[in-house]
Amino acid sequence: MKFNIKTDNEKLIIGNQDTNQLAKEYGTPLYVIDENRIRDNYNRLYDSFSSKYSNFKMFYATKANTNLSVMKILNDEGSGIDAVSPGEIYTALKTGFEPEDIIFTGNNVTNEELEYANKSGVTINLDSISALERLAKLPETRGKRISFRVNPMVGAGHHEHCITGGPKSKFGIKEEEVCEVYQKAIDLGFNPIGIHTHIGSEILESEPFMLAVEKMMDIAGKVHKEVGVNFEFIDFGGGFGIPYTPEEEVLDLETFTTDIINLFKEKLDEYDLEDIQMRVEPGRFIVGDASILLTRVNTIKESYRKFAGVDCGFNTLLRPTMYGSYHHIVVANKMDQENVEEIDIAGNVCESGDLFARDRPLPKLEEGDLLAILNAGAYSFSMSSQYNSRLKPAEILVKDDEVDIIRRREEFDDLFTGQNIPLRLLK
Ligand code: LLP
């Protein structure tokens, strides 16, 4: 199934729920998350890898969706967490993840962040020599189990902003410096036990992953031989894509994981590497298609172009504005109708770039129609803001016949959280 939706005559269904009823009951805009789909995505990916190599673990990249209930579900499934900030470490610990199941891959980290990560007991994955040197100066870091993020000079992704390997990338240690850095870590009294990379996001072909795996294994082999590091894990990051357009194909998991694991095993043999855990850090693949954003059309406007105006904007879902990303849109109360017109779907933020779609073929739209923006589970709520003093929407979780509000809709007072007016201005 390309998109995680079902229909019942004119109605769009998610879980067992009619989205029109959900919108009536909980209002719009509304993120609706399908619990079963998260579990299913996790298990499909996990099983596909682990059936071919059992020393395998997944670390959900929580930046994709940090909702506490989503984290709980993944904790329940046995996932670890890829955290990018102290806030994400804190959230992971709060939702029940053990420190050893959390890897902290910060970028341009401060000493305070390193200290927080160290005290939390998570694995610290260092992104620069500077961070290594600064970590060494902090109390109680001797003997600490650490790893390094490496730039294997392979990068891929759906947009330039989302390519994280290669010559332009700010991430990772340079290949030429890797042996030196591991040696330095040992000299400073650390216990380097892992090596990590993440080449980019929303990758639908296996080629860049294969290149990255090959490169990383060659690098790990060299560090093992020349520096004597006995790796406990090799982490290949995330990036597994999902189809956003009707034309894109789902990743052929079986072929993909077979090719990767075969190459991985070959390289383990080549470099006499043993007992190594293979790790990946999927974000989008787990949650991307497990959520939709429901938004209601409030204005049909025939200007120089035809617009359908809806009750949310790029403050609610940034990806189309930020990356020009395509999100498939369906009319939740007209699922049985043919596309008859091409129309722009515009948000309610006061900027011209606030568009969810241009010239999108859709059934005849009317004010009051309910739109569902699909694949809104990854980098959607987690990138939302209060820009234009717009309130963040509610999130609900559906599982079969159960529906729960897992984040209440914001109220006006939420706009002021943390603010303080100096007394002199109140005179
Ligand atoms: N590991 C690391 C170190 C990462 O930086 C990321 C994502 C992941 C894993 C998970 O990647 P995924 O499996 O989700 O592709 N906001 C952008 C995506 C940014 C991804 C950032 N890093 C978007 O909306 O497309």
Please explain how this structure is put together.
This protein is α/β, with parallel strands linked by helices and 427 residues long. It has helices at residues 19-26, 35-50, 68-77, 86-94, 111-120, 129-136, 178-187, 207-227, 253-270, 284-287, 319-323; strands at 6-8, 11-14, 17-18, 30-34, 56-61, 80-83, 102-104, 123-126, 145-151, 173-174, 191-196, 233-235, 277-280, 291-302, 306-310, 329-331, 341-346, 355-362, 370-373, 394-399, 402-407. Strands 4, 14, 15, 16, 17, 18, 19, 20 and 21 form a nine-stranded mixed β-sheet that branches. Strands 5-6-7-8-9-11-12-13 form an eight-stranded parallel beta barrel, surrounded by six helices. Helix 9 (253-270) links the parallel strand 12 (233-235) and strand 13. Helix 2 runs parallel beside helix 3 (68-77), helix 2 packs parallel to helix 9 (253-270) and helix 8 (207-227) runs parallel beside helix 9 (253-270). It is globular, with a radius of gyration of 23 Å. The model has no long low-confidence stretch (mean pLDDT 97). Ligand LLP binds at residues 61, 63-64, 82, 105, 162, 198, 201-202, 237-240, 281-285, 319, 378-379.
